[in-house]
């Protein structure tokens, strides 16, 4: 098992302490921003609940029969529920269905084959559709001893309050900048890169790590350069749109672009020091920029459906230019 980061350790230790004290709930909701490692904690907790000889650290031993079966994906008392492929269309479903929740109910009704617990991990829990939620409520309302449902969600607020209120919450929070920085440095990244990545990711260590690994920071720099050139009238909207659409990364570009608009709005509102963007900020129109932020996010969705992506994107980039009306 890989080493867990401090922001993963905290909720895990909370759950382990509750387990030791006999206070662990039968339904847990592991909630918090995406890419903070919630699933790894759910898996560690599931392993602990199914382990017959946990170690002194309170975690699964890794070598008892239960641990070996779980690692092999053949533990009879474990059920993983996630998005499944729709056999009619061959595509991944966007929802967790009532059939899957019924399977969970049947599993929990069985006597554990290894004599321990019955454990299920539901990820992403916020993908439960309405009828699946209703079916799950029944399971939650009649908890059975030794049955644990670990629900993982990056958007816990999307779950009905009736479900949330029946879960013990494990919160995953974006850590302080120092902790995130130390973790990324320990992973072997250079300090200047780490600082730039954390700045871009607003302190989110998981996103920063992704971006350090896949070169997205360079992409962010080029997006910002394009936007500056557009604002200054030194680049054409159609040319930039063509370049942004030339590979598969237009969504990430638009997300960086929206972020740039939000940063500038923050600077105009005095929330962020002007710094390097002072020249750009001086000419920006706050109302137009904040509208542009929304438009950029809408365009991200639109590009998945529209035929003329180039014209749609060029239109958005022209509006960016107009947000700097003072020039
Ligand atoms: Zn074990």
From TrEMBL:
<dbReference type="GO" id="GO:0006261">
    <property type="term" value="P:DNA-templated DNA replication"/>
</dbReference>
<dbReference type="GO" id="GO:0003887">
    <property type="term" value="F:DNA-directed DNA polymerase activity"/>
</dbReference>
<keyword id="KW-0808">Transferase</keyword>
<dbReference type="GO" id="GO:0008408">
    <property type="term" value="F:3'-5' exonuclease activity"/>
</dbReference>
<keyword id="KW-0548">Nucleotidyltransferase</keyword>
<dbReference type="GO" id="GO:0009360">
    <property type="term" value="C:DNA polymerase III complex"/>
</dbReference>
<dbReference type="InterPro" id="IPR050238">
    <property type="entry name" value="DNA_Rep/Repair_Clamp_Loader"/>
</dbReference>
<dbReference type="InterPro" id="IPR004622">
    <property type="entry name" value="DNA_pol_HolB"/>
</dbReference>
<dbReference type="Pfam" id="PF13177">
    <property type="entry name" value="DNA_pol3_delta2"/>
</dbReference>
<keyword id="KW-0239">DNA-directed DNA polymerase</keyword>
<dbReference type="InterPro" id="IPR027417">
    <property type="entry name" value="P-loop_NTPase"/>
</dbReference>
<protein>
    <recommendedName>
        <fullName>DNA-directed DNA polymerase</fullName>
        <ecNumber>2.7.7.7</ecNumber>
    </recommendedName>
</protein>
